[in-house]
Amino acid sequence: MHYNKINKLLEKIFTKYGLSIQHSKICSKALINAELVGAYGHGLSRMKMYCDRIKKRVINPKPKIKIKKISQSISHIDANDSIGFVAADIAIKTLIKNTKKTGIGMVGVKNSGHYGLSSYFVEQAVKKNLMVWCFTNAPAAIAPYGAKKALFGTNPICFGTPSGGKVPFILDTSVSMINRGKIRVAAKLGHKIPLGVALDENGKPTTDPIKALKGVQLPIAGFRGSGLAWMVDILSGVMTGANHGGKVRDPFDDFKGPQNVGHLFMAVKPNIFIGSNYIKRIKENIRIIKKLPKIKGVKEINFPGEGTKKRYKKNMKKNIPIPKSIMEDLRKLNAF
Ligand SMILES: NC(=O)c1ccc[n+]([C@@H]2O[C@H](COP(=O)([O-])OP(=O)(O)OC[C@H]3O[C@@H](n4cnc5c(N)ncnc54)[C@H](O)[C@@H]3O)[C@@H](O)[C@H]2O)c1
Question: Ligand 1 atom closest to Cα of 301?
Fold first, then answer.
């Protein structure tokens, strides 16, 4: 189906579930972006989950979001259990304003929910010529190094900067071997997951996504990935006043209350030390790396975010494929 048509459908569903037109548009655009970049685990496959949570009032469809100004550079947002997309949208806009004023900005968010792809929000600030860092915590998926039980989320780390070209440099990565959305989609579609990304409940490596969801996901690079997950939990959870230490609720399985996810967004003007030389220098940096001799089978060295943009552009020209079971979800949400 064409992405414009799906966008309209999603807006219709969100407004039907009680979101304002403005908030419905924000959420639909973010979900369509996930589909266009090929992040299917963060797109339409989550629509039913968001609507179920709104229906059970563990996502507040009419949040009264409070923005507390701490200084010219720093704001603290209480998202009032809004859907994560809306909280992140307000946060990134606030971050841009704060950073433009002072050269450096920070926004912490509590009482939010799952917001999908960090890069979607980070890109908005990078397009305003800012360098951005963004962190969010997520429900328990990874066991801290040495522990038997999952506690950290897949806690993505995102960094973006203008690259001097049309495509921004955006590194946006989970600290798990694969993101949980991919495992959820594999479970829904009856696919296997790669070996080496998760263990089952008994600590045995598994390729069965259902067993993986009940067991633990593996962090990138062993204790280093576990440490990064912990850092993200501190920055986005402990520091902002959101849930942390494994208390962020799983949006698919735990309807006992709101998730209370936390996010932290930080930005600087990249030219603070070297003026307009920054763009010259980053272009030079990318040029040096791209020119390196390549290993067999690699035609081009891409910087983070480059491949994502290529996929986005290619997919814009095609229909978005919707698997049968997800189409069925959308039908049940009574969209058409
Ligand atoms: N909201 C949440 O709770 C949550 C949790 C986990 C992940 N996520 C999101 O899921 C998305 C996907 O995460 P992921 O860990 O699967 O990312 P990924 O593994 O697809 O990509 C990670 C990073 O590596 C870069 N990359 C990929 N292939 C590359 C190559 N060949 N050369 C150079 N760079 C390359 C990508 O541009 C990206 O920046 C992210 O947007 C993340 O924010 C969200």
Answer: 32
